[in-house]
Write a structure and sequence with these properties.
The protein is an alpha/beta fold and 370 residues long. It has two domains: 245 residues, Aldolase class I (TIM Barrel, Alpha-Beta Barrel), CATH 3.20.20.70; 69 residues, Orthogonal Bundle (Arc Repressor Mutant, subunit A). Helices cover 39% and strands 23% of the residues. The chain is built from 15 helices and 15 strands. Strands 7-8-6-5-4-3-2-1-9 form a nine-stranded mixed beta sheet, with helices on both faces. Strand 10 and strand 11 form a beta hairpin. Helix 1 runs parallel beside helix 2. The longest helix is centred in the middle third of the chain and has 17 residues. It is globular and about 55 Å long. Bound molecules: iron/sulfur cluster. The site of iron/sulfur cluster has 10 residues, from loops.
Length: 370
């Protein structure tokens, strides 16, 4: 099974921490852009005719900022061009400042069955500081419209002036309105974004403080019945994101739209980040790929190890043996003994101990070849 990702690169305005491909000043091009995405899908139809897709993820940007009929047409185009299984998980990302009852009804009618809502924090002053366009009240309205639906909420830690109580409040708000999944990410101050200046000025929490926030959030989430299945992702029983799990399991996926990346047949490729270039390519019936890299055996191993060690389950030794012909524990005995204090090793799995999952990068690095 494989996944489909579609990138909608429009937002109402740019958040202060954002370095994603999103163009607040280009929203007037939404209709032409979506026409190109439908065309790009048709261009891939023949090549992907033998694939079965069990997820479609509409991300961005802010997919909920554009007219809902474009989204309905997008889902229809995906169903028309590809083998999307009848029980496919179809997710749309939504910003609470762009949602209405009519939009959500259209989404549900066209087959969308999972919603990912960007709350980030339940504290209005922090939302304003981040440059988010919405308030807590708007999130509450959105969550009420999603009552009974399968929805996820994004929360951020590591914000300026954020306290542990603020994190508790954000988690409690998301959980109390029925979220079945919560993603809790640490703010990454990217060079070139306005928030990077805050970071340089020492206004953001330091690494130890963020680690404390993370541990606090994990305990709170666990207490509310959310199980951690990946370093930043928590869900009620069985409500994991099938789409993201496919990434972490090195599954195949095809991406459409500006900046969308794909991994098909052990080749990774990425579309241009430039909107004009994307239009020009698709309108002249050319793919908009700017980078394409086949993955060699060492690369496959690195990816498998890196992705699996991010998950709570860790590396499945039988799966590793089946894929690469060796036992992971034997092959990496030197690295394992060096990092043994951080690892749980059983007959079936090798995983990072729960308490060290947040610092997994510093542990994983020793296992990578490239
Ligand atoms: S809503 Fe998301 S994609 Fe849009 S500017 Fe904010 S962080 Fe970036």
């Amino acid at each position: 099974m494989a996944g489909i990702y579609v990138h909608i690169p429009f937002c109402k305005s740019k958040c202060r921490y954002c370095d994603f491909a999103s163009f607040p000043d280009k929203i007037g091009f939404a209709e032409s852009y979506m026409a190109c995405v439908y065309r790009e899908m048709a261009m891939r139809k023949e090549e992907l005719k033998n694939y079965k897709f069990n997820t479609l993820y509409i991300g961005g940007g802010t997919p909920s900022v554009i007219d809902e009929t474009y989204i309905a047409m997008l889902v229809a185009a995906a169903k028309k061009n590809f083998n999307l299984t009848p029980d496919a998980e179809i997710t749309i990302e939504m910003n609470p400042g762009t949602v209405s009852a009519s939009k959500i009804n259209t989404y549900k009618k066209c087959g969308i069955n999972r919603f990912s809502v960007g709350l980030q924090t339940a504290i209005d002053s922090q939302l304003a500081e981040l440059g988010r366009i919405h308030t807590l009240n708007q999130f509450v309205t959105c969550a009420k419209l999603l009552k009974g639906e399968n929805f996820s909420v994004d929360i951020m830690i590591g914000l300026k002036n954020q306290t542990l109580d603020d994190i508790t409040k954000s988690i409690e708000v998301a959980a109390s309105f029925g979220a079945s999944h919560i993603s809790m990410y640490a703010l990454t101050p990217e060079d070139g974004t306005p928030i990077y200046t805050d970071y340089l000025n020492g206004e953001l929490p330091d690494g130890d403080e963020v680690a404390e926030m993370y541990a606090h959030g994990v305990a709170k989430l666990k207490g509310l019945g959310f199980e951690r299945y990946e370093v930043s992702n928590f869900c009620k029983k069985g409500k994991y994101s099938r789409h993201n799990l496919n990434y972490w399991q090195r599954g195949e996926y095809i991406g459409f739209g500006v900046a969308a990346s794909s991994c098909i047949n052990d080749v990774r490729f990425t579309n241009t980040f430039n909107l004009d270039e994307y239009f020009k390519c698709i309108l002249s019936n050319h793919f908009a790929v700017i980078d394409s890299q086949p993955i060699d055996d060492a690369g496959k191993k690195d990816e498998f190890i890196m992705l699996a060690l991010r998950t709570a389950q860790g590396i499945n030794r039988a799966e590793y043996l089946g894929l690469f012909g060796t036992d992971f524990v034997e092959e990496y005995s030197a690295e394992i003994s060096k990092k043994s204090a951080y690892l749980d090793i059983s007959d079936t799995h090798v995983k990072i101990k729960d308490e060290y999952l947040f610092v997994q990068n510093s542990i994983i690095i020793d296992f990578l070849q490239e």
